[in-house]
Amino acid sequence: MFQRTVIRTSKAAARSLPRAQPFTPVRQPVAASLRWYSEAPAAAKAGESAATESKPAESNEATQLKEQVEKKDKEILDLKDKYLRSVADFRNLQDRTKREISAAKDFALQRFARDLVESVDNLDRALTTVPAASLNPQNPDLVMLHDGLKMTETILMQTLKKHGLERIDPAIANEKFNPNLHEAVFQTPQPDKEDGTVFHTQQKGFMLNGRVLRAPKVGVVKNS
Questions:
Q1: Among 4, 65, 93, 220, which is most buried by a count of CB atoms within 10 Å?
Q2: Residue 34: pLDDT above 80?
């Protein structure tokens, strides 16, 4: 009896107590935690990949710019070389043109001078044919003619000299024979003169602008 009474009492006390709720474990949001720990490395990896991708892009751009600069430098050098060549060709053309013009002038003047020296020779022969003994007051007409011819010859030679044409007579100054300037016609001994001296001029020569237009024909001393 007593045992039943205790059991009933304990059951009544148990019924009077509030029922405890069943324990339910609180679960953390796995997705959020995973997102926190997974997004940071992913962002770092994305940044590294972006930086890795940008570096080759920058390197390619720098390479392209360098190639463009080298290409432009080559074009500049090529254009400079062509310019210098053009300037050199133009200067050579100018020099060649000047030489050709000068040669043409000299050639034209040379032909004119060759034809003119024949007239000068005739004038000189006319003066030398008059003997000095005939030039006296008894022949006033001859003296006047001779003086007029002499004056004409003097003015003519001065005019020709202004244009580069000069007459040469090596016998006047007893010059030494020069094969580059003189033409030896004969040789003869002259005891009072040295060998190789020009003592006679058979035909006077002419120089045109420092060059021999016609070599004088001369006689040369040869004692040995």
A1: 220
A2: no
